[in-house]
Each structure stands twice: as structure tokens, then as C-alpha cells.
Design brief:
Strand content: 15-25%
Shape: globular
Order of helices and strands: HEHEHEHEEHEHEEEEEEHHHEH
Structural class: alpha/beta
Number of strands: 13
Radius of gyration: 19 Å
């Protein structure tokens, strides 16, 4: 573990060198996703297959002390060369392990991958007007980082998603106005290491943009832009996940229980840490399960066919 952290420190130093020292890279992949996860067996396959469907070519996954049967899902993808899996057994309080995993992935894959999207397993990234992310990213060749707004999805009043059902099929209620928080797709050689999981600082002469190619820097976009590309953030999953997994995990990691500074805005109360599971379900129903949004379901028939065929092969 010490060697891994030492390599990250060396990487951080190297990335401070002027960009003109970097060579022109023959990329192995146009687009990959990096994510850290813990006990996501239930939703893992749907998340992987969805992102393959929208154009992701490779995945760099960091297992943070999972105790479920996630390997039964991931092993076939590893064998086919679709996933690189790393055991990342660090304490993730205050998201330190997540940031370190992101920087480890940047170190390993600078020059190997043109674009890396840094996502969580409850975040689904997709273009709205076209179907393929690689095609979509051709309009952003000059920038270092495309940052995409969230649409926050709630439980949709679903107790538990059926075993033979898909999350994208059953969770359709959200706060449709979107959220200024962003997650980012970056060109690794054009950014400095992450110090925040939402964005990386750009190197000299490069810039972070929103989908309208408006430059900015930081965790929050200057305004919400959802008509070209978006991230459906299934923050709660269903009621069972919210009460039995999400809230206990957030408390254990010492992270905010809702969208950071927006916690009080969403819930109209300042004691969210002390809310009971029943109060959380009611608050989510009131503040996030507001309106229907099925934009992502343009991918649903293809995703259902893929998942059905894979289940038949098992």
C-alpha cells in the first residue's frame, strides 16, 4: 500500500511539468470509466452494461473492502479484457480513498486512454440527443475536462426493485430541474491530480467546460445544462437501499447525507444526521420524487435485451 501511495505522489509531481513535455499519445481506448465501489453486487451489471451501451470501451474499477459477491458479476468482464480491477483497501472517510483511486487511475492510464469519466456506481452518464458518448465528445477536442450536471433521482416510492427488473425501468421520479453539482470526463494528460472527486484542476492553456463549451472551474457549474448530456444520479436507489445501505454508509464515511451544501435546501431541516429511516423516505418522496423523467429510457429496450441474453447464458 505504501508503494501505491508513493507512486501517486511521484505522479502528482510529474503532472506539474509543463504540458509541452508530454508526447502525442496513440490511445488504446477513446473512452473509459473509473469508479470506486463497495458492496454494489445488486446494481453492478446494469451499470456496466448501460455504460458499454453508450460507448464506454473499458472500466477501471477499485474495490473498496466489499463483502458481497461482486466477483461473480465482474469476473467474466475481467476475462474478456473489459475491466481492470484493483483492490483498494483504504479507509474512505471524507472520500480520501476515492480521490486516491482517481489519481491512481490517471497515473496508470495517461497516454493509454483519451477520455476518462470519473463516476460513482449510482451515476449514469449519457448523451441526450445522440446515443454514443465517443461521438458526442468529438465536439470537445480542445478542452481538458467536460463537466456534466446531475439529475437527482429518488426512490420513486419503490420499496425494492424486482430481481428481474432494471433500476432504469423502475426509478423514474426525480428533481427534474437538475443540480449544479458536476462530475467530470477528463483528458488525463491535460489536468492536475484530483483533490476533489467532482473535478480536476486543468493544466496551463487548457480548461474545464460545461456542455455548452462555457469555461469554469470547480464543483458547481455556472448554470444547469441538461439538454445535451447529463448524469442521472440514483442517489437513493429504492427505499430498501436508502434505509439499509445508503444512510448507514454515509454516516460511517463522515460524508453529507444529501447533496453537500444543498442538504438543508432539499430537506428543509438542519438535523438530517439525526433523521430516522422513515423520515428520510418521507423527505426524499417530498423533495426529490417530484416529476417523471424517462429520458434515459431510450436505451431501455437494448439494455433489457442485453441483460436478458446474459441471464440466459448463466
Amino acid at each position: 500500500m505504501k508503494r501505491q501511495f508513493l507512486s501517486i505522489i511521484i505522479f502528482n509531481v510529474l503532472l506539474t511539468l509543463p504540458f509541452y513535455l508530454a508526447p502525442s499519445f496513440p490511445y488504446q481506448y477513446e473512452l473509459a470509466v473509473c469508479a470506486i465501489f463497495q458492496n454494489e453486487e445488486r446494481f453492478l451489471k446494469e451499470w456496466i452494461e448501460f455504460h458499454k451501451l453508450v460507448g464506454v470501451q473499458h472500466f477501471f474499477l477499485y474495490n473498496n473492502n466489499s463483502t458481497d459477491q461482486f466477483m461473480t458479476i465482474i469476473k467474466p468482464y475481467i476475462e474478456r479484457g473489459v475491466i481492470d480491477l484493483y483492490d483498494w483497501n483504504f479507509d474512505n472517510k471524507s472520500l480520501n480513498a476515492q480521490i486516491a483511486a482517481y489519481n491512481d487511475s490517471m497515473q496508470r492510464n495517461t497516454g493509454k486512454v483519451k477520455w476518462i469519466a470519473f463516476l460513482d456506481l449510482d451515476e449514469y452518464l449519457y448523451p441526450v440527443r445522440i446515443d454514443n458518448l465517443i461521438t458526442f465528445l468529438r465536439d470537445y477536442e480542445e478542452c481538458a475536462e467536460l463537466s456534466v450536471n446531475w439529475v437527482m433521482f429518488g426512490t420513486s416510492d419503490v420499496e425494492k426493485i424486482p430481481k428481474d427488473g432494471l433500476m432504469l425501468e423502475h426509478l423514474t421520479k426525480c428533481d427534474a430541474q437538475g443540480n449544479k453539482h458536476v462530475k467530470s470526463i477528463v483528458r488525463p494528460e491535460r489536468v492536475f491530480p484530483f483533490i476533489n472527486p467532482h473535478f480536476a484542476q486543468c493544466r496551463h492553456k487548457f480548461y474545464q467546460v460545461n456542455p455548452d463549451n462555457v469555461g469554469f472551474s470547480g464543483t458547481y457549474s455556472p448554470y444547469i445544462s441538461l439538454d445535451k448530456i447529463r448524469i442521472n444520479h440514483y442517489w437513493t436507489r429504492d427505499k430498501e437501499w436508502l434505509t439499509k445501505v445508503k444512510i448507514p454508509r454515509a454516516i460511517a464515511l463522515n460524508t453529507n447525507l444529501m447533496v453537500n451544501d444543498d442538504t438543508a435546501w432539499y430537506l428543509n431541516r438542519h438535523d438530517s444526521w439525526n433523521m430516522t429511516p422513515e423520515e428520510w423516505v418521507m423527505a426524499v418522496s417530498k423533495r426529490i420524487n417530484i416529476s417523471e423523467d424517462r429520458t434515459i429510457q431510450k436505451y431501455l429496450p437494448a439494455l433489457q435485451a442485453i441483460m436478458c441474453n446474459q441471464n440466459k447464458l448463466q
